[in-house]
Amino acid sequence: MAYPATKTKSSSRKPQRPGRFTAFTRTLWLLFGGGVLGAILYVLAVSINFLGLFGRMPNLKTLENPKSELASEVYSADGALMGKYFHENRTPAEYEDLPQHLIDALIATEDSRFEQHSGIDAKATGRVAAGLVTGGSGGGGSTLTQQLAKVLFRTRGDLNDGTLNKVPGVRMLVTKTKEWILAVRLERNYTKREILRMYLNTNDYGSNAFGINTASKTFFNKKPKDLTVSEAATLVGVLNAPSRFSPKFNPDRSKRRRNWVLLQMNKYGYLPEASLRADTLKPIKLDYSVENQNEGIAPYFRVEVSKMLKAWAKETDHDLYADGLKIYTTIDSRMQKYAESALAEHMKLQQKWFDAHWKGQQPWRDETGKVIPNFIATSIRRTERYKSLNNRFDGNKDSINYYLRKKYKMTVFSWQGEKEMVMSPLDSLAYYKRYLQAGFMAMNPLNGQIKAWVGGTNYKYFKYDHVKQGRRQPGSTFKPIVYTAAIDQGYSPCYQRPDVATTFPAVAGRESYTPKNFEGGFSGRTFTLRQALARSMNSITAWVVQKVGPETVVQYAKRLGITSPIEAVPAVGFGSSDVSMFELCGAYGTFVNKGVWTGPMMVTRIEDKNGNVLREFVPQTKEALSEETAYLMTYMLQASTTEPGGTSVILKTGFKFPYEMGGKTGTTSNYSDAWFMGITPDLVCGMWVGGEDRSIHFRTGAYGQGARLALPIYGVFMRKVYADKGIGISTAPFPKPTQPLSIEIDCSRYYGGQRDTIPYDQKLNQTDLQDLDDQDI
């Protein structure tokens, strides 16, 4: 068909075919519109994880309550932070605790347009895209909010479970898309302040420090609000690469990075030129200390508490190491400090004497005093190192022995401080076997609250706990349980018995048994039961066991909270069965608490991270003795400190305590275990000293008895406790029963006011504990 002719004005422009421009623009619009629609559909598909292609996305509840791991904190009864339980050591800071120059440093360095965007910085993103097209870097495009999303929701780990995430090129696109989506959602749900706070509280600063609170303490021993501009810039600089820019391990690189942060602050108007010059010249001065489980208050106690808490957490669906719980314990941080100090002070001296005692000799001996052959070679088979080597080399002895004898440079414990030595694993084991070990526990018998717990001489090097985990023969510290049975069956503290041999006849499978006194013989003199307990006389204790029966003694032990197996044998009264200090403290507490056994208590309450109480604890109690029997036992135990010949008189004559207190020493055969138990109206203390192995000990009572090796820890501890008036420990007499006693306890009426003395009592020296003696076996 021919078009009709028309007249047109002449023009230099070429005529276009009808509709060509319209078609071109339509195409452009279709392409653009289709691209936008495609982008929208793509984002929607990622958001809902269409067909499982892109991986999971956090739901609304998770987005509103993003969870990062928070360390659970352990507090003492007087409010001191004792330590933490954590996978990631993180304790959140409030926004008000963050100094403005820290916020300025972060924004200037990581996201200068943070206040202007809503999660995605279009300008920065475009710059990155242009860089990819042109082959340049384009700089970083992630906003602070995107970085927060990456850390909070683990976009590059936990959420990468879609089918397309396995395709290398597509994986990063999907990941970045998720971060964009989450960043926008975070901006809708939180204020800018909240996002900044979460960012600083969430990130890793290196050195096992997660969050600004922990980082400030780790590197500068400060709270965030006390950081200087230079220190704040240092920590912000670390965020980019915690290992690379660590001020501890890469100080020069860290300083350069800090100065770059300061330049950024100046560039964006946060730091004046004069301050910039001054701060860039400053050195980085660290006060560096990494928090770990070896440090803090009462580490042995915290391990035992964690065992209980893990069981509770499992039952209640909590995570002890990530939920930011607040655990309030019974420990008094001041008493704990005094206990640790007293034990260290005493053990440092005892180790010096022990080393001199065995100088040039091997201390591991059998019952006849002979060196135990292959002791170290046998002992090392029980170590984790040996088990690891055995698995590694499939039991090949040559390979195992090669590495057991190979010398290494290692840091070892000593009472003079850590020292570097070169030794093999066999050498190291022999070195540590020569160290004496110790344990100490103090508790309030009226409510069961444990006030101090020292499980060993140094938790970093000796993890084994000698308070509850360890069980050893208690020696004569078990005797009060024997006398409790006698008192309860009608015997008076003033009942008299001669110091003569008592023989347990032979029975099937067991020979006759005649316990001897500490000095070996029998005086024939008459003593009251109170005197006999004070002097720890085995002859009279044996007679009491024979009268009440070993089975009855076992029954009373269980009534007083002893849960370890106790054999009903003639030697039961001399501590022949192993028990823990934890159990003994509970048993002695019954005497002070008017006959009510109160289980030792470690925790008073647990709170969640917001301060809501999750669990409160009350002491476990039971009626074990009559009030009168309990009081008579406190009266009996006081004799140890007041009667001539009492094994604990040094507390009065040497330490010169003017207050009422009771005690009982204990020493086992060959001096393998030295014990002391002390009581006052509101405190029961137990302590033990000995070798890691029972074959390692002193050879004489002059050094190895309970009065010499254990009791002084109590004296030093109580001296410190009494001196601290803020603790408020009672100095009053033991309270008397509410009802009048049914028996007379003034024993002078029974023996005309005459008190026997024994020759060794004259050896007591108020300033030298070395000559103290004991009658325990």
Automatic annotation (TrEMBL):
Record pathway: Cell wall biogenesis; peptidoglycan biosynthesis
Positions of the Penicillin-binding protein transpeptidase domain: 439-681
Domain of life: Bacteria
Record field: catalytic activity: [GlcNAc-(1->4)-Mur2Ac(oyl-L-Ala-gamma-D-Glu-L-Lys-D-Ala-D-Ala)](n)-di-trans,octa-cis-undecaprenyl diphosphate + beta-D-GlcNAc-(1->4)-Mur2Ac(oyl-L-Ala-gamma-D-Glu-L-Lys-D-Ala-D-Ala)-di-trans,octa-cis-undecaprenyl diphosphate = [GlcNAc-(1->4)-Mur2Ac(oyl-L-Ala-gamma-D-Glu-L-Lys-D-Ala-D-Ala)](n+1)-di-trans,octa-cis-undecaprenyl diphosphate + di-trans,octa-cis-undecaprenyl diphosphate + H(+); Preferential cleavage: (Ac)2-L-Lys-D-Ala-|-D-Ala. Also transpeptidation of peptidyl-alanyl moieties that are N-acyl substituents of D-alanine
Protein location: Cell membrane
Chain segments annotated as coiled-coil in the UniProt record: none
Family to which this protein belongs: In the N-terminal section; belongs to the glycosyltransferase 51 family.
PANTHER family tied to this protein: BINDING PROTEIN TRANSPEPTIDASE, PUTATIVE-RELATED (PTHR32282), PENICILLIN-BINDING PROTEIN 1B (PTHR32282:SF11)
The protein, known as: Transglycosylase domain-containing protein
Organism field: Hymenobacter algoricola
